[in-house]
Amino acid sequence: MRDRSTAFDTGINKRDVFNGRRACVFCGARRGLTHAHIVPKVEDETWEELKGLGWVPQQAKDVVQEPRNGLQLCRNCHGHFDDLSVFVRYVPEVSKFVFMNFSNITDQPYVNLHQKAIGLQPLERCSPMACLFLIHECRVRGRHPFRQNPFLPQNIEWAHWIPWTGMAILSTVSHHFKAHLLPPRRRRRRRIVMGWKAGAMYKELRVGRGA
């Protein structure tokens, strides 16, 4: 029997690449990478309900295979995401996915990552569905019911590893990643292409900041 997660893994491996190398979309780590499901892969009924409500396209693959239901994370970030300590919020006004350290993890890099834009962009063809992050956020906030809904700063900066480490190059006009050819290495002519393929933008999902 063919592995049901093949399409899931392939889609994420092609999408979450920076400067020609795979990396965690939260912290930029290059080692210990795993693939996380936003809606857990055991929640087939939830997935079908989302399709019925029109939140997930009818043509989408199942909850296990759909790459738009997944993220490439290092083991530490994957653990914090799954145990409902952090969430991601899509901000349509600036077209950024923002990391929220909702449980106030005191370790780095999570303190510095709080309220920073991470390595995802909505123009990518297989970009995660923003509505799935909303469901995950509700679960995180349900686990911490007495914490206030965090307000976002007006100027949402990129996570420190994106503009400064050479992992990605940003367009200062569109605030999106742009395709970039690395300079060839000495005695080698092969060029590594880093970038995001253009695709259809998802419908804007507005999350109430004061809810």
From TrEMBL:
InterPro entries: HNH_nuc. Pfam families: HNH_2. It comes from the Eukaryota. Residues 24-84 form the HNH nuclease domain. This is HNH nuclease domain-containing protein. It comes from Dendrothele bispora (strain CBS 962.96).
